[in-house]
Write a structure and sequence with these properties.
The chain is of the alpha/beta class and about 350 residues long. The model is unreliable at about 1-20 (pLDDT under 50). The protein has helices spanning about 10-20, 35-50, 65-75, 90-105, 120-125, 135-150, 185-195, 210-220, 245-260, 265-270, 275-295, 300-305, 310-325, 340-350, and strands at about 25-30, 55, 80, 85, 110-115, 155, 160-165, 180, 200, 230-240, 305-310, 330-335. Strands 1-2-3-5-8-9-10-12 form an eight-stranded parallel beta barrel, surrounded by six helices. Strands 6-7 form a two-stranded antiparallel ribbon. The protein folds into two domains: about 10-240 and about 310-350, TIM Barrel (Alpha-Beta Barrel); about 245-305, no CATH class. It starts with 8 loop residues before the first helix and ends with a helix. The longest helix is centred in the last third of the chain and has 21 residues, at about 275-295. Helix 10 (about 265-270) crosses helix 11 (about 275-295). It is built from 14 helices and twelve strands. Helix content is about 50%, strand content about 15%.
Amino acid sequence: MVLRDGRPREAAALEARDTYMRRVSIGINWQGDFDMDQIVEQAKVADDAGVDSLFVAEAWGRDAFTILAVLARETKHIKLGTSIVNIYSRSPAALAQHFATLDELSEGRMIIGLGSSGPNVIEHFHGVDFGRPLTRVKEYVDIINTLMREEPLNYEGKIFNLQRGFTLRFNPARPHIPIFLASITPKSLRQTAAIADGWFPIFIPKDHWKPQLDAFQGYIKEAGRSVDDVIVRNPDGVTVTDDPERARQGTAGTAAFYIARMGDFYFEHFVRMGYADEANAVRRAWSEGGAAAGAAALPAELVEDLGTQGTVEECIDAMEQAEEAGFQMHSVGVAERDPKKREAIFRQLVG
């Protein structure tokens, strides 16, 4: 496969590994005001600076695939992915079509990011029963991988029974697109370790990095795989900003929303890590006083442990600490608006 600048993609990938030290990823927001020209500009700046990957989220706002189709045509080297799309609102074959098409448009740069979401979104936005999430994830991965390999789709699962031998009516750009899974429960972590190419953890304070990673790497070995087979993204999002307090407020608001408003999965995640009192306080405060009260109920020291906000140097230190712990990919935000300054910051972060 050849890139638009004439270089073989394999050579470009090797060059990137030799040149850049850190696997930095960025996200595109799905909420609020929308300016596609600005999103394209952000993506091109990151692409030019050597950022490893760009992820587009999808919840109940704009869809991820339309944005990714534009970015696939407007960028050259940066990997593109979803973080995440759910495994209920589209069939596994539809997701395979989406990702195979995008992989073709991007010349082999897609990452498939999947997750179950939760019953609030699935049942009350999409109107689909939130049943057997672990089984669905497994069968979606199986079916997508089968279609990418161009094998006849004959599949007998607990949910899907597909026996007509369909194949995609074009040749996928690659026989396998990396699949990353968002998972937080012990059972889902064990499954992720067995079937995924990457894991998207979330809301893990620094004191819990080692036990969480040790457990996950143990599951990888139980599945007969090497820990090098699965990329783990750093849950400690880093933000380069001259207003760290504002960024911390954003972290607190997001964590409180997930604890109080996104069902029980994230609430129970905090409880398992020993933050039952804090999680219950957030739910009570949110119920009585809304979003601001819920965010304010999170202890400042816990909020600080969920992310790093500050100078480029402070963020680099945080990423190095995460790499020493065992994380290989970093989720980064840059508050700087000027494109040239933002590109310079990305280059420093990439190394």
